[in-house]
Amino acid sequence: MTERRLRTQVGIIGAGPAGLLLAQLLARQGIESVIVENRSREYVEARIRAGVLEHQTVQLLTDAGVGDRLHREGLRHDGVYLQWPGERHHIDFPGLCGRSVWVYGQTEVVKDLIAARVEAALPLHFDVADTALVDVESDRPQIRFTSADGEATVLECDLVAGCDGFHGISRPAIPEQLRTTWERVYPFAWLGILAQVAPSTDELIYAWHPDGFAMHSMRSPSVSRLYLQVDPTERIEDWSDDRIWSQLQHRMGLDGWTLNAGPVLDKGITPMRSFVSAPMRHGNLFLAGDAAHIVPPTGAKGLNLAAADVKVLAEAIVARTQEGRTDLLDAYSDTALRRVWRATHFSWWMTSMMHVNPHGDAFDRQLQLSQLRYVTSSTAAATGLAENYTGMPFE
Ligand code: FAD
Ligand code: PHB
Predict the structure, then answer these.
(1) CA 160-49-169 angle, 5° bins
(2) Which of 101, 107, 260, 303 is a plausible cystine mate for 50, CB 3.0–4.6 Å?
């Protein structure tokens, strides 16, 4: 069988936020790339995930030329509410650290990046199969794949960016004995719904409750996103819309406040884990985003970390291509991992403070309530939350 042979500077596996943003940042600097994605465009654009963008992620998307709709339709939030039964407290981000966050769905970020790529007529292959990595230790690594029209293809690159998420092929392409991994699987999951109803709050509510965490987020002035802590073995079929709304009301209820219910557009259960794999480089293969690390969603960091990785990686690739410097590429893994570990700690901390541990006891619950009172009453403690939630400055 004949093979089609292609050549590019940077081969990118995965059209999630990491792969798409990397390609966009490189294109702005005149560096060629090819993206291969094993799902369809429709699937990738509809996959509901994160919703909160750090101040610097917004800046990065704006600088990358894909910020117009984000600035028109995104919602700037100057804080979050932390709640436990009978009390709701606002954390004022600009007052504490001078920064805000933006509510704008990952689906919308992905749509904007794909639209920019398609408009510029740059290569983006959806629906590929059999993606494989070859010779990543060499200076001519290859991505092999079968294109949507069934053609066996060899993509020869200067370097490869593995942006293929947690279940991708890139991380396993690094020999196991060269990798160190750290993992924490939490004894709970999030049941999430997207609902056609105006949010019942101006900013996100994170609610601790003895029956489990609940949270109110949003996507637009007419679409709400809500979550409930559930056991990871729960099946979504056992959660009717009525049962979900009544649990949300029960866990988030507060005198004088009403939770508006509405038609459920989407629902699903996501397990929660922390995971870090190092190094994020092997030869000429560089990992970015969920391919190298996963955080539980409580800190709203997953998408933001993916963006931070590719900012560092894009700058390093530009330095090598335009100035022949390899120091930034050599430092990439260490530079990215410092931010990854900060976000890993923050996400673990928020998760531990907000969720009821099914194996915990009354002592654990008193510690959580004490921590919540401290964070909502001490400027020093609140500043730590605000700094991390809005995103630590880039190094
Ligand atoms: P991904 O978005 O996973 O993109 C990887 C891409 O690679 C995918 O498009 C995939 O189809 C493709 N791919 C995989 N394997 C191959 C292959 N072999 N060949 C070609 N392509 C391949 N974060 C939050 O902050 N808040 C949330 O509420 C939240 N909810 C989440 C819910 C779920 C179900 C999941 C999985 C994640 C959630 N996250 C959330 C995390 C956040 O969405 C991720 O951190 C973010 O998507 C990371 O982007 P990425 O580009 O690194 O990876
Ligand atoms: C969301 O809107 O989906 C969302 C917001 C904040 C989080 C997690 C998810 O911490």
Answers:
(1) 30
(2) 303
